[in-house]
Amino acid sequence: MNPATQELKPVYQEMAEEVKLYGYVEVSPFVTRVKIALNLKGINYEFIQEDLDNKSPDLLKYNPVYKKVPVLLHNGNPISESLVIIEYIDEVWKGVPIMPNDAYEKAQARFWSTFIADKCHPALFKAIGSHGEEQAVAEAHELLQFLENELNVKGTKFFGGDNINLVDICAGYIAHWVVAAEEALGIEVVTKDKFPKIAEWCGNYINCQVVKDCLPPRERVVAYYKGRFGKA
Amino acid sequence: MNPATQELKPVYQEMAEEVKLYGYVEVSPFVTRVKIALNLKGINYEFIQEDLDNKSPDLLKYNPVYKKVPVLLHNGNPISESLVIIEYIDEVWKGVPIMPNDAYEKAQARFWSTFIADKCHPALFKAIGSHGEEQAVAEAHELLQFLENELNVKGTKFFGGDNINLVDICAGYIAHWVVAAEEALGIEVVTKDKFPKIAEWCGNYINCQVVKDCLPPRERVVAYYKGRFGKA
């Protein structure tokens, strides 16, 4: 990281400050993204458990548009949407960078993280929700192929290179949640023989200590998907 | 803008450089977003007209994921997705800032521009495409109310304050395209009496010189929507 850039960042962590994360049941991959970003930066925060069936007045006040978690509250300022929160965390707190420093690499990180969040996520869960219906799986595979190619071209351990970045954090739901859903249903959507680089990346990602600290226990996620998709 | 931040930005415009914008038929609000950003920065560029029915090998190579315009090519590096391109332009070129400098305001700009692009845009064109069907209009109004409130709370000429920023550029399709589609169909979706602040903002936006330079002629957009939505 450019030392000059670092100096521009306010050293908030030396002030007495309020950092609260509104989340819910520990299986949310979106809330976990924010937990990982805060963990990377070594930020202490208060976790506030939301009840989805009875959302708190605070959640409705802080995220009136989507009424969803995660919401980060920093010194009274609420921020919603996991990708927006992660970029905010990276800009406000020094330490391990989450975004690349170079403008072009930064644009690429934003491109891929949006693709993974907006395109791959619904396609993968549609394929899972359909218990592996052929057409749904084919559509998910078409998208996954782009990630496989990207990892192939980069030839690095993570999308971020030697270390995780925004793209890895964003793709984390594949490594932990999709894999757990596959186990719950006894199907394989992210087929290892078709996507060996993604399979390798999944292993690298969940074995990264800063990630491991924040992941909900595998068996709880499996149990959640067994309930959600209705198969024992 | 913080002078120290400015110094960190590479002075690319002093180098001989390649800037190409791949776009198509001048009615695209997405391509226009990028044109406005480039115009704000005073960047010279080559505009490459794409034929949507016969996409060029360059477009397919530079944006293999979406195969869509706009694509910005900067010194050989392709960037896709209008919001990603605009942030890139703002980071690479000095001059009039497009993003706020403050981290919280930046997060808010990202939040609103994504909301306007991902939520309001499809809802508005669904309402228009249905020729003003009640339920579709009600859904669009629910979203527009958030923008109306935001403008009310800010009390400024633009979402960006005294000057346009990412959010204004992103919302520009409402001021020019939605209004033209309303004219084409003889309906009103963004009702002026219900959304006076948005109506005022629309006027402010299209009268901003840097925007005006880049907008396709109103009558061409009207003609396009007459054709698209099948009503004379």
Your description of this structure?
Chains A, B: Its EC number is 2.5.1.18. Chains A, B: One of its GO terms (cellular component) is cytoplasm. Chains A, B: It is found in: Cytoplasm, Cytosol. Chains A, B: Keywords: Cytoplasm, Transferase. Chains A, B: Its main location: cytoplasm. The structure is a homodimer of 232-residue chains. Residues 1-13 of chain A have low confidence and may be disordered. Chain A is α+β, with helices and mostly antiparallel strands and 232 residues long. The longest helix of chain A has 27 residues, at 103-129. Chain A folds into two domains: 3-92, 3-Layer(aba) Sandwich (Glutaredoxin); 103-228, Glutathione S-transferase Yfyf (Class Pi), Chain A, domain 2. In chain A, helix 2 links the parallel strand 1 (19-24) and strand 2. Chain A is built from ten helices and four strands; from the N terminus they run H-E-H-E-H-E-E-H-H-H-H-H-H-H. The first copy, chain A, has helices at residues 3-8, 29-41, 57-62, 82-92, 103-129, 134-154, 166-185, 196-206, 209-212, 218-228; strands at 19-24, 46-50, 71-74, 77-80. In chain A, helix 2 crosses helix 7 (166-185) and helix 5 runs parallel beside helix 7 (166-185). Chain A starts with a helix and ends with a helix. At the A-B interface, helix 1, strand 4, helix 4 and helix 5 of A face helix 1, strand 4, helix 4 and helix 5 of B.
